[in-house]
Amino acid sequence: MSAGRLDRARAWLEQDPDAETRAELEALIGAVSSGSADAEIELADRFDARLAFGTAGLRGELAAGPNRMNRVLVTQAARGLADWLLASGRDASVVIGYDGRKNSRVFAEDTARIMAGAGVRAVLLPRLLPTPVLAFAVRHVDVGAGVMVTASHNPPRDNGYKVYLGGPDEGSQIVSPVDAEIAAAIDAVAAGSIVDLPRSDDFETADDTVVDAYVARTAQVASTRPSAQPVVVYTAMHGVGWETTARVLEEAGFDRPIVVEQQLHPDPDFPTVAFPNPEEPGALDLAYETARAHSADLIIANDPDADRLAVAIPDHSDPTGYRRLTGNEVGALLGWRAAESLSSRDEGAPEGTLACSIVSSPALAAVARRYGLEFADTLTGFKWVSRAPGLVFGYEEALGYLVNPETVRDKDGISAAVAFLDLAARLAADGSDVARRLDAFSETFGHFASDQVSVRVDDLSRITATMSRLRESPPSEIGGVRIDRVDDLVDGFGSLPPSDVLRFHLGDGSRVMVRPSGTEPKLKVYIDVSSETGTLAERIVDAEARLAILRAGVSDLVA
Fold this sequence. Notes:
The protein has about 550 residues and is an alpha/beta fold.
């Protein structure tokens, strides 16, 4: 047993203002003192490491200790961010939002008091709201930074802390080297106790005009008042999306969707889903059930903080009666919509940039080429996508879409829902639908097929070892398909900053990318193929067959 570890735990206990985490830490310390080996392992996990503050901010399980999310850690982060703001020369002001997860409001209010106590102007949003509203508020309120307390679609016991920058960063999330500078400021605070940090109730609480402005701007994403409307089912996945989404859809002229009542209101326990992520198997089962009951034409789903959008369409070949579109399919359709909109203006040749993360489908690049637009691929995360010069539309395959960069410089599941409903309504007015639009995309640009293989690990060293092996002894083929070139992004590549990513270009034009997940203990592999010759049916068969071969080969590659 480490006496130093116990001393650190007791010092943490002395400064913890939360009765719940104090009680569970006291019990853990008692069990360790009584000789429990399991308790010693748990204490080591909590106190031998610290949740790292990076470009994704903080995210972790709610519990006591520096390697968990709790009021002590959040207070240290808030004061560190305040110190950085005051020293950076930026406007010393911050707007703070929070979602419906456990302790989100507590963490937000702690942040506001710490900021105000440090001399930073702090503005707290009026109630629990979607992440896109906070991202919008950074520019609307014109502050130096924004903080959103959310763990997005993570498991129920998690929470997190995302940081945005105003001014020249226009409300985008932080990127390097700012993350390291803030992390250093947080570490300096963590070297002492939070007990003596000054706090103040002299912070502002924003009124509803911030939300009203977001609603008005987001409703404008719809191109026209819809003349035909599909039957739509909506689920908020127990998150905070519904209230704001309902207002936006009404303002844009859409009918009120049929809602999944069991998942409509915020609930930090997420009782109807094992994992509150619309990408996860089973997460949309209640939405499918509701859609079948109403013969719905479309399902739209937000994740718990409403920064992501999932879409499902009728599919009689699926046992549920519906098929969730992939993020790449939705991104391709929304990117095509954006390109068409630009080309329809009477202002000469269309200008602007379509952007997506490097692990997203090459389909968007094909759209940009066809319409004479710029294309940018970025590192994963909207902190990068949102910064593409001249951006008019951006997405990443993990259900994130940025359709109105002049309003929000982050993924936004509400504005994306408006854009997709606008497209669906226009198709319905023309006697078409989303499924036929997907076929038209494949006929126009080629059929693009994508897949992802994820390897979840208990020991993170396995991920490091796999990446090292692939770098030191790169394969010559995957699934029998020759590898022509390997791009290693570890030191940067072209205009891309350094990242732990390997990109394999194959002889048949396919692409395979391997990277560690930024938020979960996973190694992720992304596979992309395309087919541009033959009939639509021939393109689909060709692409799907090649995808299956690569999927099997990738499983051997990262086993």
